[in-house]
Amino acid sequence: MRKILFALLMATSVPALAQERIAITGGKIITNNGAPIEGGTVLLNDGVVIGVSPGVSVPAGFTQVDATGKWVTPGVIAGLSQIGTAEIAGNSSTNDLSARRSPGTAALDLDVALNPAETSIPVTRQEGVTAAIVGPAPGRTLFAGQGFVLSLGEGVTAPLRSRAFQYVSYGERGSELAGGSRPAAWNELTNALEEAQRSMRGRKGERDLSQDPRLTPEDAEALTLVLRSAQPLLVRVDRASDIRQVLKLPRMYPGLRLVLVSANEGWLVADEIARAGVPVITLGMQNRPENFEYLGATMSNVGRMAAAGVKVALGTPDLDASFQPRNLPHYAGNMVAQARLPGGVGLTWDQAFASITKTPAEIFGLAGQGVLKQGARADVVIWSGDPLELSTQTEKVFIRGVPQNLESRQTRLARRYLPGRDRTQLPEAYTR
Amino acid sequence: MRIVAVGLLAGLLAGCATTSGPKPVAASAPPPAALQGGSPEAEGEVKSTYHAWPGVPTVVSNVTIYDGKGGRIDGGAVRFEKGKVTAIGASVPTDGATVIDGTGKWVTPGIIDIHSHLGDYPAPGVPAHSDGNEVTSPVRPEVWAIHSVWPQDPNFSRALAGGVTVLHVLPGSANLFGGRGVTLKNVYGRTAQDMMMPDAPWTLKMACGENPKRVYGSRNQMPGTRMGNVAMMRQTWANARDYQQRMKAAKGPQKRDLQMETLAGVLDGKILVQNHCYRADEMANVIQLSKEFGYKVTAFHHAVEGYKIADLLRDNGICAAMWADWWGFKLESYDGIEENLPFFHASGGCAITHSDDADGIQRLNQETAKALSDGRKWGLQIRDEEAWTWIAINPAKALGIADKVGSLEPGKQADVVLWNGNPLSVYSRPEKVWIDGALMYDSNDPKRRPVSDFELGQPGEGDRK
Fold it and tell me: For residue B455, what is the nearest residue in chain A, using CA coordinates?
């Protein structure tokens, strides 16, 4: 156990890149901490925001970055993603999200898979995503294991926070993995938590293997983190009745901090989720009855949950080309559009932007992230315009105050194959 | 144009001049004559029962119009009646028409999605609904997507709310020859035939690359490699050429071969090839073999590496239907870039934004807007109304229906979308959608929002936006 706590303490890493003192001036500043500031100044020093103020003022020793006419915001935080752990989804040798044949389940640490060289990191960073919650997918049982928090900064080699949460699939997928039914899934889930409780009390000998022969002692020990509030339990669940069932968990285990993932029928039980004080991380874009567990899917789901008082962050729970974390600002924009449709319920712009910045930071307790204020982490993006709009591009990205290279393998390919390029002298393979 | 492409083998094809006009044969063409020794005409056996629903003469005025073929009118107006566009311009006659003031709004032709599996992979996506791939042989040109289309798919309503008025439903890509695709009007009916767009040509879905070789190679069957893919395509086309010539020479009724009938229809230029292909080198292989056997690829679908060979596709008159930014989900999509659509367009190619996805089809305007922005990042000068061609006239051309839909012009079918703002903005949505002049969706009127049988009585019924 001490080993785990030590890992939690040591998991933050600071990239060894040159820190600059930077004054971003003239932009429209979205602070997520009060009204926007038009034409203000954001000061970055030593990886931290040291000031956000109206008007333009550049202290001595600061490099001025002119953002006149631009928007300046905290970096986007993907509420859930798979960045850095699956280079090519369909190519199993590069996809570490799940382990169908592993004896371990809850004990698996996804951060072992983190590949800082993965091309999706710069591809996502160049669109203004500066941090991401990274989660596994279930393999052999409904326990998928532990995910981490990633900074997308250049030179980052370790998670911002390891073992940041435990991830469980309930509902249809969980039922299938537990043996074929919801009762089996519930049984497996609660048995494991009971086992963890026994493990926590140091009474491992009492374990009844006949109850769940698939839980290893290491898995049970990993789950003690959930019971001791050392990490939240993320439960993927969609059907309203399944959500109600899962909401029993915090009542059964007082230390358990529950977060719902997906919750596509959350709007049907929004008051109950709100009363339980349970936050939700969801794509927000699922409006089709693609599974029987969310026949009630609607684009108003996020808006209705938020209106009921539920804290909702956006993320991409699945590795899916249709919905990529780099497009989260657009999904937030769609939540705003939904509010403008007759009968639709969506988010205000402020709520929508918070759902991809401040709210995920709050859910995971990432102090000083997702906001621009004195003392905040200097993850800052300068956008050509409204960051939720499709025509907007990022112009500069700072992570811990360090200006980031916005090139990626994709921009390299684009440059190599620019329309109108000269093909008379050498093949494209000679263009770098 | 299609016939020009088979010029290489013009001598061998000389006998089929009467059946190989550039315009596709209408679905109502009489089959008996064709069955007499010539190329069989199974087309007539699946007939559209689509009809337009009632509409009223309508004028939408004071709007910004993207006309679908690259033009734009600010403060313009469009008039339609009896299912057809009758006038478009700065002002149009308003006599006898319901006039809608569109101040601050936009009008476009209905969006056309050239690559969809709605109906043949309907929601819910359970095994009982998996009807898109006849994975029993890599050569299945005899199957027709129309026969898998479930007209109660809830997804049609979502696509409609996204402004999609015409969609092309294709078999999947597990097979080299996947079967015939069908073009639908996005209007719920009781049967799939109720949705079939009248007089739209049939298409043939083909696929190269990882999917066929994986599906069959894993069963220790051919094809197990890319070269196996090509060899099998060539042998199949060779068989089709034999068949075609035998049928032309034959006297009296012949035993029918449904596989060969579809392929002969392609060789005759009546069935349009829609070819799933990701990599540049594979598209080049397919172009070569199409010339060898005398057919034309109308469009490459996905074409994730289209940007690398935009000139090759342009020079061969082949469109590319692409995603805005899908990449990296399998190795053959690893070189996907966000600039594929704008680069292809800027190279003079016929670029199409497609979905291949029940989510993406709802936001083809947004996919187009994203890609447009990514092109402009590199300094490409592409106007908004020009980019709209990617989801309007360009897919219409590649489906052989550009004489009917794909732009707002007098005489064309009145598939019209009124948007509540700039349709290239994330904040805009269709306010009204007309199909053949009938109001089929109205965001202000819950009675003009369809609910499929499946969703009736389910949680959230009618909650569809």
Answer: A295
